[in-house]
Amino acid sequence: LLIAKSLSNIGAIYAKDHQYEKARKIYEDALQIIESSNDTISISKIYNNLGTIYRLEHKYGVSFYCSLFLT
Prior knowledge:
Helices cover 77% and strands 0% of the residues. With 71 residues, it is mainly α. Helix 1 runs antiparallel to helix 2, helix 2 (20-34) runs antiparallel to helix 3 and helix 3 runs antiparallel to helix 4. The longest helix is centred in the last third of the chain and has 17 residues, at 40-56.
């Protein structure tokens, strides 16, 4: 769980540096790790981060899909 949260922080750094592809890959890696923990709050945060990345890449359909996991 700590590794997934650390990866999420690294993804945020890439996102702030406008390296969206790298950020997305890191968030996806974090999501794979954290999904087995059933930590719904952390899972939601990662989907929110992924949705933001997809929105910034103008991939609105995928961004919307990520938002469905937040409700």
